[in-house]
Amino acid sequence: MDHLLIAPVVLPALVAPFIIMAVRHHLDLQRIFSLASVVLLAAVSLTLAAQTLDGTVKVYELGDWPAPFGIVLVLDRLSAMMIVLTSLLALPVLLYAIGSGWDTRGANFHALFQFQLMGIMGAFLTGDAFNLFVFFEVLLIASYGLMIHSGGTRRFQAGVQYVVFNLLGSTLFLFALGTLYSVTGTLNMADLAVKVAQIPAEDTALLRVGAVMLLLVFAIKASLLPLHFWLPSAYANAPMPVAALFAIMTKVGAYSILRMYTLIFGPEVQATAGLTESWLLPAALLTLGAGAIGVLGSKKLGRLAAFGAIASMGTLLIAISLFTQTAAAAALYYLVHSTLAAALLFLVADLVMERQGQWILPQLPMPQTGLISALFFAAAIALAGMPPLSGFLGKLLVLDATRGVDLAPWIWAVILMGSLITIIGMARAGSLLFWKGHGLPPQDIDTSAEPPLDNLAARPAQLPFVACFGLLGGLIALTVFAGPATRYAEATAAQLFTPTAYIDTVLGRTAE
Questions:
Q1: Beta partners for 305?
Q2: How far apart, in whole angstroms, are the C-alpha atoms of residue 183 and residue 178?
Q3: Do residues 303 and 232 make contact, with C-beta atoms less than 8 angstroms apart?
Q4: Backbone dihedral region for residue 391 (phi beyond 0: left; psi -120 to 50: alpha; all else: beta)
Q5: Which residue from 411, 405, 214 is spatially nearest to 324, judged by alpha carbons?
Q6: In angstroms, rounded to a whole number, what is the distance separating the alpha carbons of residues 334 and 342?
Q7: pTM score
C-alpha cells in the first residue's frame, strides 16, 4: 500500500498542532513551518497526480480494513486534480498573508490555515460519504476561525451567520446520510453505487429523498441560488487572503455534486432518474445572473469580489448540471480557471483596500496604483471570461457543450449577458478606483471612505505582488497550455462517466 496517498491529509494535520504547541510564540518559525508544509504538500500532490495520468485509481485503506467496512481514501484523476489545485492555490495565498502582515493580526493564523488545508484535502480524497461529512466539519471549524481572524464586529456577525447557516447544512447532511444508510446499509461511495443500482424502482422513494437532501447540502456549499445568500457577507467581511483561499471551498460543493451524481446517482441510474434535470440548470442560470448583477451593484470591493465568485460558480454549475461527458470536461477546465481568477481578484481587492479603504469611490491615486490597476484589469477580464485569458476559453467550452440541449438558447443568452454585465461592473469599479481620482483637487475627493486599515509603509511590499503575479501566471499558463489542460479534463470526465474502474478498485475486485 502506497502511504504517500494519505500524506495530503496527515501533513497539515501534524503541522497545525505542532505550530500551536511548539512555536506559537515565534512568528518567524510559524511562517517557516507553514510555508514548508505547503511547498511539501504541492510536491506530494503533483507526485500523486502523476501516478494517475494513465487512468490508474489508487486506494488507501486506513488500518488495513478493506472497503466497504473500513475507511478508504481514493485517488483518481479528479481528486488528483483537485488536490493539486488546492496546494498550488494555498502557496500564493500564504505568501500574500505573510507579506501583507495578515498573519500577525490575530492568533493561530498558520495553524488554522493548515487545518483548513487538511479539511479540503480530505474532502477531495475520501471515498466514504460519512467522512466527507467529517471533513466538511473540519472545513467549517477552521474556516470560521480564519473568518474572524483579527476580530471586528462586522466580521464576527458575518462569521456567526456563516456558521449558523453551515451548521444547518451539516444537520441536513446527517439526515441525508442516515436516510441513505437506512436504505442501502453502506456509506462507502463505491458500495453505494453498487447498492443503489440494485434497488427496485418501486422501493426508491426514501432513496430519492436522501439524494435530494444530499444535493441541497452540496448546493449550499456551492452557493447555488437561492442558497447562496450567506456567501457575499461572509466572503466580503473575511480577511481577503482568507477569502482567496475560500475560492476553493465553493468548489468542494461543485466537486461533491460531480462525484456523487456521476458515481452513485448517475443519469443512467433508474432509481434516482429525474432528480436534478428540472431545477438544477435553471438554478445555476439564476446564480450566474444574480452574481453578475451583484457585481454591477456592489459599492464595496469585498462584495464585488464575492459576487464575482458567485457568478463564476453559476457558470461552473451550468456545465455540471448538464451531466454529459463533454460538459463535465468543460466544467473541470473552467473550475481551475475560476478558482485562480477569484483568488486573484480577492488579493487585488485587498491591495486596494489596504491603501484607500473598501468603498468603490473616486479617491486620490494610491501608492503603486499602476501595478495594482493592471492586476485589477487582468483579474476583471479573467473573471468575466473575456479574451485573451483562460476564462474566455472556458466559457467557449461550456457554450460548445450545450449543443443538443433544449435550453441551449437560454444558456447562451445568460452566459453572454452575464459576462457583459460582469465586465461593465468591473469597468465601473476600475474607472472609479484608478482613473477618476487623477487630476481632481483633494477637496473634490470623497473622504467618506474608510481609511486604510494599517500602516502600509511598515510592511514588505514584494510578497503580495509575487503572490498576485503567481496567480496571474497560473491563468496565463492555463491559457497557453489550454490544449493539454483540455485533454486532461476530457480524460478525467471520461473516467467519471465510466466509474467501473473506481468501483472495482475500491471494492477490491481488481488486483492493484
A1: none
A2: 9
A3: yes
A4: alpha
A5: 405
A6: 12
A7: 0.93
C-alpha cell at 51: 501516478
Q: Which helix (H) or strand (E) holds 59?
A: strand 58-61
On the CB side of 113, CA atoms within 13 Å amount to: 36
DSSP string spanning 197-260?
A: HHS-GGG-HHHHHHHHHHHHHHHHHTT-TTTTTHHHHHHHHS-HHHHHHHTTHHHHHHHHHHHH
User: What is the H or E stretch that residue 73 is in?
Assistant: strand 72-75
Residue 491, amino acid: A
CA distance linking residue 356 with residue 459, whole number of Å? 16
Per-residue three-class SS string for 92-141: HHHHHHHHHCHHHCCCCHHHHHHHHHHHHHHHHHECEHHHHHHHHHHHHH
- Of 242, 67, 267, the C-alpha closest to 149 is 242
> What is the identity of the amino acid at 362?
P
Dump pLDDT digits (tens) for 330-344.
999 999 999 999 999
Report how far residue 395's alpha carbon sits from residue 385's, in angstroms, rounded to the nearest whole number: 7
Tell me, rounded to whole angstroms, the distance of Cα 99 from its chain centroid.
Answer: 23
Whole-number CA gyration radius for the chain: 22
Cα separations in angstroms, 313 against 224, 249, 254, 458, 507: 8, 11, 8, 37, 33
Alpha carbon 428 to its chain centroid, in Å, reads: 26
pLDDT tier for residue 82 given thresholds of 50, 70 and 90: very high
Q: Is the pLDDT of residue 251 over 50?
A: yes
* CA-closest candidate to residue 390, choices 276, 328, 480: 480
411-426 pLDDT, tens digit each:
999 999 999 999 999 9
pLDDT at 458 over 60: no
